[in-house]
Amino acid sequence: MKKIRLTVNPGDEKSLIHKEIYSNFSEHLGRCIYEGIYVGENSDIPNIEGYRKDVIDFFKKIKLPILRWPGGCFADEYHWRDGIGEKSGRKKMINTHWGGLVEDNSFGTHEFMRFCELVGCEPYISGNVGSGTVEELSNWIEYMTFDGISPLANERKKNGREQPWKLKYLGIGNESWGCGGCMTPEYYCGEYRKYATYCRNYSGNELFKIACGPSADDYHWMEVVMQNIRWMVNGISLHYYTLPTNDWGHKGSATEFDDKEYYDTIRNTLKMEELVTRHGEIMNRFDPEKKIALVVDEWGTWYDVEPGTNPGFLYQQNTMRDAIVAAVNLNIFNNHSDRVHIANIAQAVNVLQAILLTEGDKTVTTPTYHVFDMYTPHMDATLVYSHMENEDVADGVPALSYSASKKDNEVTVTISNCSLTEEYSVDTSFGFEKITSGKGRILTAEAHSYNNFENPDRVTVKELEVKVENGKAVFTLPACCVVTVTLTI
Ligand code: AHR
């Protein structure tokens, strides 16, 4: 086993790791909302007011900070008035974008906001710019947040909600360069100005407005947005998905892959480092004080759908490879937390790199869920300096990804070892300080392993032995693992 050194300097404090980096995304897509989150009050599946009880509990356990809704591409076809009022009177439509499902609008504004209340997370509403109007979005904000007398506030009350909701996060357009309207960045900036002007702060509610940012490495989009609308945005989104093959026609299977495809997947995920660095550099030129957040509100793996499932439902399994992908991305976000303040993995339940999968009354936690669980100590902690010896295990793929944070006298280090063969013994020191105690948690399994309804606990978190001697800590990283080590000063 190779010996390597990890140095953490708890005195070298960097930026706050906003807990919102650990957020999620839920779209009217496949079985995310219906079946995944909402089953209706008459369902046999245990529920609270129609929302799956197990899903609420799993979200609470990982302290889910923000849930984004109603899309995605669906958001730019969504008309909020279809989803309010008596359910029997709500308009039915075909979700043409995602698999031709009948959308009965039984999950609308009131249902989403109530779900967030039950989970204890902040709602993030993605507004329709592509096929909507300024008036429609402006009215939606007034309907949700106005505390006075107005036809819209009265309508909300009539529909059962006396008090306005607090709504902080508002996306103004989703992928406006693509499914959200195929706009040029210059055209989008003109649209944004109008929409942002009329999305008002009512009754003490303060909107955090998120402009549509680039797809992956479209640096020109970022440049134009920063140049034209930076004075009226709080955040700018970035979307980047990990595909094993870089070919949207043949993305690759979620569960069947060889070693090359495995390492290609990790290499493609590591591109996130370059993206947040280079987009950050553009933002720095216009916003050196780093007031504007980079909001990575769609990220994760995107594979071919599970054989036999509706191609429009984007249902995929989730293996130990996905756990490594999640760990790598989250370490990148932590290490760039001076600029990345929010990130939403796509998506919460039954879609893409889901943290939960459901079938009837059963729910399984995926390896990705466990990574979110293991990373909770980083929430609202302070990023501190860390350095690890490292080596490439495939062309351009270092074995280890890591980040470290501090809260009070506790330091948390999260590490993933993506090597399929190498294990490492890690010698950890704190520079001038002494480590007094340590404990750890580990997620490890063969890369193809996953949890399913027959075997829900094949990949689960176990205790990791951490030995502390003479102010230093030693622990082992087996091949293909994610660990959290908590050390006390
Ligand atoms: O997450 C699935 C889709 O991916 C979203 O609807 C869209 O924004 C992105 O292209």
Summarize the structure.
By secondary structure, this protein is of the alpha/beta class.
Q: What does it look like?
A:
This protein has nine helices and 26 strands. The protein is α/β, with parallel strands linked by helices and 489 residues long. It has two domains: 2-10 and 384-488, Immunoglobulin-like, CATH 2.60.40; 18-380, TIM Barrel, CATH 3.20.20.80. The chain has a ten-stranded mixed beta sheet, with helices on one face. The chain has an eight-stranded parallel beta barrel with strand order 2-5-8-9-10-11-12-13, surrounded by four helices. A two-stranded antiparallel sheet has the order 3-4. The structure holds alpha-L-arabinofuranose. Alpha-L-arabinofuranose (AHR) binds next to loops. Alpha-L-arabinofuranose binds next to loops.
Low-confidence stretches: none
What's the count of strands? Answer: 26
Report the CATH architecture of the largest domain: Alpha-Beta Barrel
CATH level 1 name of the largest domain: Alpha Beta
Rg from alpha-carbon coordinates: 22 Å
Global structural class: alpha/beta
Number of helices: 9
The percent range for helix content is 10-25%
CATH superfamily of the largest domain: Glycosidases
**Amino- and carboxy-terminal Cα gap:** 28 Å
